[in-house]
Amino acid sequence: MTRFIIVRSWIGIFLMVASTGLALADGPAAGDIARLQWMRGRWVGESEGVRMEEHWIGPLGGALLGVHGDVKSGRLVSWEFFRIDVAQEGVFYYASPRSAAPTTFKLVKLGNRRAVFENKIHDFPQRILYWLDGKDVLHARIEGTRNGVSRSEEWAWTRRP
Question: Which of 6, 9, 65, 124 has its CA 20 to 30 A from that of 146?
Fold first, then answer.
C-alpha cells in the first residue's frame, strides 16, 4: 500500500510539472527576455551635433529597463524611457518618450542579436528594430508610415564602460 501511495504521488508530481511546462510553452517565455541580454550596457553615439546615450539594464525580475537621452550644445533636448517585459499575450516593448504614457510594441521576431517589435495601429512608428552587429555596435531603427508616406530613422551606438 505504501508503495502504491509513493508511485501515485510521483505520478501526480510528474503530471503537475508537465502541465506547467505545457502552459509555459504555449505562452510567452521569460527566456525570450534572457535572449535579449545582448542589449544590456551603455551605448553612445553622435550625429549632427547631437550626443546620444542609451542604457539598458537587466533582466531585473524578468524585464529589461532602458533610458535614452539626447544632448545638443550641452542641453538635454530629448529623452525616453523603455521597458521590455513579458505579458500574457507575449513579450512587449514599452516606449515612453518625454515621460509620456507608454506605447506598446509586441515582439514579433527574435533572432540571434536581433529583435523586431510591432504596433500596426500606432501613428508612427509601427515597427522598432534592434540589432547588434559583429563590431559591437547597437543599431536601432524605427519604421512606419505617416500621412501615407513611408518613413524610417536609424541610429547606431558603440558600447562604453
Answer: 65
Q: Is 107 exposed, middle or buried (0-12, 13-18, 19+ CB in 10 A)?
A: buried
DSSP for 49-114 reads TEEEEEEEEEEETTEEEEEEEEEETTEEEEEEEEEEEEETTEEEEEEEETTPPPEEEEEEEEETTE
Fold for 30-160, please state it: Lipocalin (2.40.128)
Segment (H or E) for 128: strand 127-132
Q: Residue written as cell 534572457?
A: 34
More confident call, 158 vs 13: 158
Q: What's at 43, amino acid-wise?
A: W
Would you put residue 4 in left (φ > 0), alpha (ψ -120 to 50) or beta?
A: alpha
Q: Using CA atoms, how far apart are residues 85 and 21, in angstroms rounded to an integer?
A: 20
Structure confidence by residue, pLDDT tens digits, 8-60: 433 343 333 333 333 333 445 668 899 999 999 999 999 999 999 999 999 99
Rounded to whole angstroms, how far apart are CA atoms 118 and 92? 9
Distance in angstroms (rounded) separating the CA atoms of residues 130 and 116: 7
